[in-house]
Design goal:
The structure is a single chain. This protein is of the alpha+beta class. The protein has 3 domains: about 90 residues, Double Stranded RNA Binding Domain, CATH 3.30.160.390; about 100 residues, Tyrosine recombinase, N-terminal domain (DNA polymerase, domain 1, Orthogonal Bundle), CATH 1.10.150; about 180 residues, Intergrase catalytic core (hpI Integrase, Chain A, Orthogonal Bundle), CATH 1.10.443. About 45% of the residues lie in helices and about 10% in strands. A hairpin with a 2-residue loop joins β3 and β4. α9 packs across α12.
């Protein structure tokens, strides 16, 4: 009796067996394994020998598609052709350069490079050409999770453990490109549990930060000139160096906190780490940026809403993940590290320590002054925030 689509959905392998077979007729059957996978197989006889041919995995290959593949194989058998031999020959012919992983990776890189800084583009190209070399020979459709796992282990073996997550992220994006262009049906890099494959990454100093002006200049240039990524992610990472807020405070920033007339952000106590209302003077560049953002996300109560639900803020770690995409590893720069960057450089420039600390929302002054003066050093802070924004603009142009 032929199988039905409804039956196939309900099939499961008993716990006391490794696998079971469910036959559809004319040699076609479904192999149901105890790990939950369901595989299409066709059994046939050629030159007096029984052979078995894989036709794909359900539900990627549906019942109707499996029957078509089986019918094509039977036609070849009538013609005296072994369908397995024909498949091997077809694979050889189809393995043209335009379907190789490296060819598709190059196309993706060419598409993306203008959105990156020259240094980052060169870095990604090195990863593809050198670190991911073992994938070059494969057709994009031939690569599975095993191949990607082997690559991660090979990177670990070189001692460059920190490269593994960023290269995995690049491979994930390449497969995303291939999926979008219908060059493959799967993405073996998506959801790969890297932490279970390689040794844990060495613990890094929390809130790593760039504090040298030359390095900060390159970072700001990369952030402000690279447009890859979602709108909110791009704009949030542009904003955070200029307002000294913590990543969680940026994520949860609401339009009701932004006072365009007074040129201030007023964050209520319940949203701050130390349960005290905090004021952020807005430089003219930041004010312009927020007005631009409001045109796009003003429909939400959040300045940076979630793409899935506008009633929620954007996801955690998106700014840190974007830094990783730009080529800045966790031991070089973190989203929280912009506070340390600003503090270090402003102290070097001779700004008053208490003014800097007040703008970072650290405890300053006496307990009484903290309780009654939420605007402590506000006039100095306004001047400092404008000069800091001007300084970052200067670094970009240098």
């Amino acid at each position: 009796m032929n199988l039905t689509a409804l039956e196939i959905k309900s099939f499961s392998c008993p716990k006391n067996k490794k696998q079971i077979k469910k036959f559809d007729g004319n040699g076609l059957f479904l192999l149901v394994k105890n790990n939950g996978s369901k595989l299409w197989r066709m059994r046939f006889k050629f030159s007096g020998k029984h052979q078995e041919m894989a036709l794909g995995k359900y539900p990627t290959v549906s019942l109707s598609e499996a029957r078509k593949l089986a019918e094509q194989a039977r036609i070849l058998l009538i013609q005296g052709i072994n369908p397995l031999d024909e498949r091997r020959e077809r694979k050889k012919k189809n393995l043209s350069t335009d379907r190789l992983f490296i060819t598709i990776a190059r196309k993706w890189w060419e598409q993306q490079k203008n959105s990156w800084s020259e240094d980052h583009a060169a870095r990604v190209k090195r990863w593809l050409m050198n670190d991911a070399k073992m994938l070059h020979k494969f057709h994009i459709d031939e690569i599975d999770t095993g191949h990607v796992t082997e690559l991660m282990l090979s990177i670990e073996a070189t001692g460059a453990l920190k490269k593994a997550p960023v290269i995995l992220s690049v491979i994930n994006r390449i497969f995303g490109y291939a999926l979008a262009h219908r060059l493959t049906r799967t993405n073996p890099a998506q959801g790969l549990p890297l932490r279970d494959i390689i040794k844990p990454l060495p613990k890094v100093r929390s809130h790593s930060a760039i504090v040298k002006p030359a390095e900060l200049a390159r970072l700001i240039q990369d952030i402000d000139s690279t447009q890859s990524g979602s709108f909110c992610t791009v704009e949030a990472l542009k904003l955070i160096p200029r307002v000294f807020l913590r990543p969680t405070e940026i994520r949860k920033l609401k339009w009701e906190y932004v006072d365009f007339e007074e040129k201030l952000i007023r964050i209520p106590a319940e949203e701050m780490k130390r349960d005290r209302e905090h004021l952020v003077p807005l430089a003219k560049q930041v004010l312009e940026q927020l007005k631009y953002i409001q045109k796009i996300t003003g429909y939400s109560c959040y300045v940076f809403p979630s793409q899935r639900n506008s009633n929620k803020p954007m996801s955690k770690n998106v700014m840190s993940n974007r830094l990783r995409d730009l080529g800045y590893s966790a031991d070089v720069m973190t989203a929280h590290g912009f506070r340390s960057t600003a503090s270090t450089i402003l102290h070097e420039q001779g700004w008053n320590h208490d003014v800097i600390e007040a703008q970072l929302a650290h405890l300053t002054g006496t307990a009484t002054s903290r309780a009654y003066n939420r605007s402590i050093y506000l006039s100095e802070r306004k001047k400092m925030m404008q000069e800091w924004a001007d300084y970052l603009d200067f670094l970009k142009q240098d």
